[in-house]
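Q: I have 222 residues here and want to know how they pack in 3D. Can you give me a structure?
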Amino acid sequence: MSSPAEQIVHLNLGSVALEGALAIPAGATGVVLFAHGSGSSRHSPRNRYVAEALLEVGLATLLIDLLTTAEEHEDDRTARLRFDIKLLAGRVVAATDWLRQNPVVTHLRIGYFGASTGAAAALVAAAERPDEVGAVVSRGGRPDLAIPVLARVKAPTLLMVGGRDLPVIEMNRVALTHLRAEKRLDIVPGATHLFEEPGTLEQVARLAREWLLTHLKPYTER
């Protein structure tokens, strides 16, 4: 089955405008917002790989740049904004509100897929919009950066970490103890932080797909 065409969208969020790519398969049953982190953008090949896997099973995807072009240039120099969780989470919240107001996808339940510091931003946003977010998936994420709000997250949350990414495994284990919603930590054997080893990204896509399909049920089924 061929992937649906991407639509470039512009999200006007007050003083800034962010660019994203929205793809909606026929008969979509949910929509997944990708929150990138650590200097990544919507063009991240790893996240795009996962997005393709989600489209194949009927989940729409929105990949957005959480930073403007000028902010990305600043972050390339300082690596500061990628750790500004409040800033990033605010933009995930704004993108969530944009999805909810978009008549094309307003009927779909929203899920998040966050990577690195983007996962922390996604969890903070899930705490801010508990009735809008149906599921969260973190790949190699830093949920420990969202610990103050994790108890407020209602969305079922899947944390995925590479088996060789030892410091991040411990960070995720600590964060897991603070989550009160349905939760799971999956460690992908042999994978490092970026899941570049053969077969590891495929495992990420499969686990994410299963989690999101399970929890992003249409409103009429809940």
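Q: Anything worth noting?
A: The chain has a mean pLDDT of 90. The CA atoms of residues 123 and 184 lie 14 Å apart.
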